[in-house]
Amino acid sequence: MTTGSNSIFLEDIAEFLNQFFAVELHSQEERGGVYLPSTRPVKRLGLLLEPSAQLHKWVRTQNLDALFLHRPWKLEPEQLAPDIGVISYHLPFDERLTFSFNPRLAEILGMSGLQVLGEKDARAIGMIGQVPTQSFAHLCNCVNQIFGGYEQIRPAEPAEVTRIAVVGAMTHLLVREAATRGASVYITGQLRQPAEQAVQETKIGAIAVGHRRGEVWGLRALAGVLRERWSSLEVVVLLNS
Q: Which of 57, 79, 135, 221 is 20 to 30 A from 122 in CA distance terms?
């Protein structure tokens, strides 16, 4: 085996993430992938949500070879050396690693018997499943520990929570469907006003974690996925960009 055979390149990471994010389910313009190509071997990969003013300094001090950017659109060419490659996934990342059908998050929440809740363009945008019997306060505490906080809550009417929904959108139809299918709590990024009446009428509890907190959790989860795939890849996460 030659030494070069263990090298990781930007295209290798993009190929793996294309499969992981199931990008073929998305339209061509939403799929993501290589944003700025590079042939430089990747030993250290930086993960961040969006470029910041200090990006060039961070890349240099962390000795990074390439970047994953969730939202790359404000990236200026002069912020990076010419051989620093960039990969980017926006909607596929949101739908796989934030509030949607997200088996990794389901496992952390203790959900079982997962089923799809809600679809958009034939893609699942949410999940519903059983959780160990617990109080609403206990679930809120758990969510707080997982995401480092939450924005708003609407207490659940039943004393015990046994089934929850995690969905990347909040409409009155989705809330009613979750309640009809036995969920006593609806977890999402943000509480939406049009769904407020459905929340009150169904007496379902709701936890709005915050869109950015969901993205940060997804970024940390992605770091774990990449480390599991490549034992030699060093992954650095910037959470306060």
A: 221
